[in-house]
Amino acid sequence: MEGWMTERADFMQNEPLAYRMRPRNIDEIAGQKHIIGEGTALYRMIKNGHVPSMLLYGRPGVGKTSLAHAIAGTSGLPFIALNATVSGKKDVERVVDEARVTGKVILFLDEIHRFNKLQQDALLPHVENGSIVLIGATTENPFHDVNPAIRSRCGEILQLKGLEAGDIDELIRRALSDEDRGLGRMAIQITDEQISRLAEGAGGDARKALTLLESAVLASDEEDGTTTVEDAVIKSLIGRSGVFGDKNGSHFYNLLSALQKSVRGSDADAAVFYLAHLLESGDLTAVCRRLLVMAYEDIGLANPDVGAHVLAATQSAERLGMPEARIPLSVAVIEMCLSEKSNSAYRAFDAAAALIHAGDTGDIPQHLKDAHYAGAAALGHTGYKYPHDTPLGEFGGWTSQQYLPDKVADERFYEPVIAGKEKKMAGIYKKLKQFMKKP
């Protein structure tokens, strides 16, 4: 028992399990088969001794750092890791000096989107001549947040995906059996169902999965030299493990995009799923703002009442706060999903704006210009017909007169969508255009 307690104490003081279990070569990488699977171009290049400079893009825990270490392990090249948030020009100069001595090094630069100009100036020539192989990692969209000078020198921009539960299951079992780096020297009793729960609870994050495993082992009771992992411990750990979603990061905006596209595609299940993910990420204001935009951009004239409904829902949500805010917002999202849809109004505006930006659009007709002052008649601001003076059936006041400038009088910006309430509006629009053509 005393020996076991000593071993367990030593284990608790070691480096984290997720750090120890990093892959040593590209054959040990779990998942990411679309990037580094056997037979891919990158896999063959690295196996043949060529490592290109590259950018690795993906959310935390998908294996960016692990992939860089594995590439270095396979290639045998010297490996230097820096973080752009804390590294300065002198750190870059040390990497350059190392490259001069060894001939070639791999520089892994985490948070590369924070790279400043001085660091770039010191490093870029050496990346260009091949003495430094740059592997940059970022959670932000590299096309938005990484400097063009860096992007142009990286032949590969690789988007890593969250791991599948099967990949994480494999990682957990590898950690449990590895006696050198993992938990293989410990007597651990854990069921297949518990491993599956840990794999699914990690949400595609390898680092989180191994951290959950390590925490579950350390939080469970030990008896007669054997640690029996407890269901209650796993439930507790997964329940408070959090949801990925930096409200200032690319992933958050990807979630907003997925929500809007799911609503536009009328998939209520997907829309509610992304709404839940966004609200768990914590930026209620951004979610409410996007929902209001969607009500007018995607539902529009087909169901104009939705705009007022969504406004009421978002105002209620902001007054209630979380977790109650989820209730009116879920109502608004499902109503939008199942409503008729039209984007005709904002497309009409965009068409008009494009014509305006293109150049000369002509002068406002004289009869539409301001005439509420003495002397307006002398300037020719006359001839306006007041529509309310001439009723048209049940429509109200209408009279035929030109409103667009002469130069664009024949332009048509509004193209009705025959859906929902806009169907009636489209009929009125067509009739009025016909009336205007009559003498």
Outline the low-pLDDT stretches: 1-9, 241-247
What's the CATH H-level superfamily name of the largest domain? P-loop containing nucleotide triphosphate hydrolases
CATH C-level name of the largest domain: Alpha Beta
The percent range for strand residues is 5-15%
Main sheet attributes: strand count, strand direction, barrel closure:
5 strands, parallel
Structural class: alpha/beta
Radius of gyration: 31 Å
CATH architecture of the largest domain: 3-Layer(aba) Sandwich
- Gross morphology is elongated
Number of helices: 20
Name the helix and strand elements from N-terminus to C-terminus, one letter apiece: HHHHEHEHEHEHHEHEHHEEHHHHHHHEEH
Strands of the largest sheet, in order across it? 2-3-4-1-5
Number of domains: 4
The mean pLDDT is 84
Helix content: 40-55%
The number of strands is: 10
CATH topology of the largest domain: Rossmann fold
The rounded distance between the terminal residues' Cα atoms is 105 Å
What does this structure look like?
The structure is a single chain. Mean pLDDT is 84; it is low at 1-9 and 241-247. The termini are far apart. This protein has helices at residues 2-13, 17-20, 33-36, 41-47, 64-75, 89-102, 117-128, 142-145, 148-153, 165-177, 192-201, 206-219, 231-239, 250-264, 268-281, 284-299, 305-320, 326-338, 344-358, 422-437, and strands at 54-57, 79-83, 105-110, 132-138, 156-159, 187-189, 222-223, 226-228, 391-392, 396-397. It is α/β, with parallel strands linked by helices and 439 residues long. 32% of the residues are buried. Helix 16 packs parallel to helix 18. Helix content is 51%, strand content 9%. The longest helix has 16 residues, at 284-299. Strand 9 (391-392) and strand 10 form a beta hairpin. The chain has a five-stranded parallel sheet with strand order 2-3-4-1-5, sandwiched between helices. The chain folds into four domains: 2-15 and 164-239, Helicase, Ruva Protein, domain 3 (Orthogonal Bundle); 32-159, P-loop containing nucleotide triphosphate hydrolases (Rossmann fold); 251-338, Zinc Finger, Delta Prime, domain 3 (Up-down Bundle); 361-437, post-AAA+ oligomerization domain-like (Orthogonal Bundle).
